[in-house]
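Hello everyone,

My group is preparing for a crystallization screen and wants a predicted model to guide construct design. The compound we'll soak is NAP. Before spending weeks at the bench, it would help to have a computed complex in hand. I've included the protein sequence and the ligand's SMILES below. Output in structure-token form would be ideal because that's what our pipeline reads.
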Amino acid sequence: MTSKHPVPSTMRAWQCKEYCHNTSRAAKEISLAGSLPVPSPGSYHVLVHVHFAAVDPMDWNLITGVYKDRFPVKHFPFVPGFDAAGEVVALGPDCSTFKAGDKVLMGLGLAESFSETADFGPAGAFAEYCVCPESQMFKLPASVDLSVFAGLPMSGLTAYQALFTGNGSSTTGQPLGNVGPGSQVLVLGGDRGVGHLAVQMAKLRGATVVATASPNKLAWVEAIGAAQTINYKQEAWTQQLVSEGKEGSFDLLLDLVGWATSCEEVVRATKFLCPQGQYISVANNAEALEAVEAADTQASCACKSMLATCNSEDLDQLVQWVAEGNLKVYVDRTYPFSEARHALHHSILSQSSGKVLLCQCSASSGHWHATTLGASGGA
Ligand SMILES: NC(=O)c1ccc[n+]([C@@H]2O[C@H](COP(=O)([O-])OP(=O)(O)OC[C@H]3O[C@@H](n4cnc5c(N)ncnc54)[C@H](OP(=O)(O)O)[C@@H]3O)[C@@H](O)[C@H]2O)c1
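Reply:
Good plan to model first. Here are the tokens for the complex, ready for your pipeline.
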């Protein structure tokens, strides 16, 4: 292992000691460990000093056991956090892409963290130091503000692969979207981590985007690229689109809500697709999609669920768009590392637009805003 700076032997990290099945209490269930051993990088691993970690619904879904059938945590406690930006401090002996001192973006990935061959994680970014395979990292220019990129990997790759396939595929191995100039795209949930990036990317590639959002976020979602927004709290999006005669209109319907929890709803949603159109769900409604497969052959051809893969080639395109100013990861709030519970709670409360970040105070001059946990929380 090579290192430019002295790396301490211990670090602070947030840990989840067991599943907490009550989502509203999930933020209280992580605790700060004051002196965990700093992980040692394996042959192809890079040890990163984390400056910013992103908070994602996947973090609290992991803590609450939502994924436990498919991705069971085998060893507790574990450190949450899938995405981070920071500085390389040490490298495994077979690493060839990075050097100590490089600024990097990394995505630990849900699928990658739980693959049978994974020798890191699961997750691990809510810590002062974190190891990541070098194939899941991306080198950033030395001069960049890391907070601009930290929220990009998980949400950006999900949006990118759903819309354009890239190196992604459906959970059954089929290609995903092929959005381009003139495509009509409907995004259910266009205001949070994945949604706000999907709206911008689809527009960037020449598509016309319709997105659902709550009333206070409609103007913002239009400002970042949606041609039309639907206030899902006022009227069901299906009714609104029926009244506008939009059945058969969309090339791609991206479900970020898990809106369709029944076979009937998925079949109803597919009526808004044009022939060859696709209904792509990233939000854990695989059961509904399986039911459609059994019940309605025509609809099942259109329906796909997906799990993003942490691929540095796709990440390269995303970083380029951000660096050029064509894509922006909106940061709703940045919390100091010591307030990870508040950050998680903010994400759970579903109040954010864009992403929520955690900042290592000693590593950056980034500013933050603290919030008070509500009645269901409390640090
Ligand atoms: N498959 C993968 O690889 C992958 C990768 C990343 C994330 N995900 C999953 O993708 C989903 C989206 O993630 P995210 O980061 O964008 O944030 P999120 O917080 O899960 O976003 C949920 C979205 O759904 C909207 N919403 C909630 N209830 C609704 C309802 N009844 N009707 C219509 N819209 C409703 C929310 O709108 P408001 O803001 O108005 O409440 C928000 O836009 C999550 O389930 C996450 O776990 C999957």
